[in-house]
Amino acid sequence: MESNEENMDASLLEGQATKKLGPLRAFSSVAFRLFWFASLASVVSFFMSTIARGWLVLDMTDSAFQVTAINATGMVPTLAFSIFGGVMADRMNRRTLMICSDIMSFLIVVVFFVSIFLEVVELWQIFLLTLIHGIAFALGMPARAAIISSLVDKKHITSAVALFTIVFSSGQMVGPAMAGYLINAYGMASPFMLAVIILAIALFFLFRLRIPVTVMNSQPEQNISIWESLRQGFGYVIHTRIIVGLILMGVITTVFALPYQTLLPVFARDVLDVGASGLGWLGGLGGAGSIVGSITVASFSSARPMKFLMLIGSIGLGTFIILFSLSTIYLLSLVIVFCVGFLFQIFMASNFTFVQLIAPDHIRGRVLSIRMIAFGLSPIGMILLGTSAEMFGPSTATAGTGAISVLLIVVLLIAIPILKRVDRSL
User: Fold this and answer.
1) Of the listed ranges 102-116, 127-141, 355-369, the one predicted with least confidence
2) What's the helix, strand, coil split of the chain in %, to 5?
3) CATH class of the domain at 27-210+226-425
4) Domain ranges in the chain?
5) Which of 121-130, 141-150, 261-270 has the largest mean confidence?
6) Cα(177)–Cα(347) distance, rounded to whole angstroms?
7) pTM of this structure
8) Which one of 55, 269, 321, 373 is separated from 223 by 20 to 30 angstroms, measured CA to CA?
């Protein structure tokens, strides 16, 4: 009897402590904290390398198309490899997959640093290394996303997913800001040197992480072929209308809204005339807005407000990208970029949370990898934006893609009305 009372008291105290944490309640899990800091270090390194590559290519080629092309090259593997990463995430140890992905990234960034430091880097090398870096990202991300539900209680999944999206918000803020400052102060090789150090920290946290092996369903994934695993994943998605709608929303925003980031170096140099340091602040303010957006989503534990955040973010995102394209005032552009980051993140975090909660655990890795194919389609938007920027200028091209994003989201909400009632599907 005393033991039961002690357990009840302990549960009550734990519940009170968790309640006090509010949006940070998922941090009550030690495993989630280690995972979060490892992911943060990895993503900061990724975005630091991404913005530095864009500036390097712009400096070498003076071409807006080449800047978008280098970013597109990094995202193409997401289309080809993320689904296999999802199959691997459902069949293998997810922690091991994350470690292998970060080791691959570590080696690539080391090569970048050495070649730039020795002044032997060539354009084709940048594209090749960027492609391999993208493959590492594509294979590791499904495992990183699918493992979240194994680290926290189900009642904390909303908080955990939103906090996980803060990783990307922080990466978008810290990575570009640091890269811009380092390029301006110490030269082109410096951001890659720091990215190497940060990736080493990520690996340190991952090696300390301990996760119980995920319990498989009654038909172990190891007993069926990879192609059958893929068929099951796509079959589940195709026959789940709400998942189809959520994924299509992600495709639209990724193809037509997200690519505006690839032209930030062009806007910083040619439209706003603020150079590399100004570029860092543009990326940094976007990341800051994303952090605020993630915390906003994490503050809610029910589905109804998250639904409204997703709808507002999906429509508002393209609208503010149009406003950004029209601005020639640097301070105003910073404010708009902050709003873009906020809107993008409340959409992405709530959209991703709904996919996490709806998909069953045994197939979640594959469903999330199909959701991530949206990122793999982003090169389509990047190439479209880069080509349009060469023909009509960066401002007109960016305004056009923002308008298309708003239009397609509205059409999708009309075509799949269940998206407006997604909270009722949980």
Assistant:
1) 355-369
2) 90, 0, 10
3) mainly alpha
4) 27-210+226-425
5) 121-130
6) 23
7) 0.70
8) 373
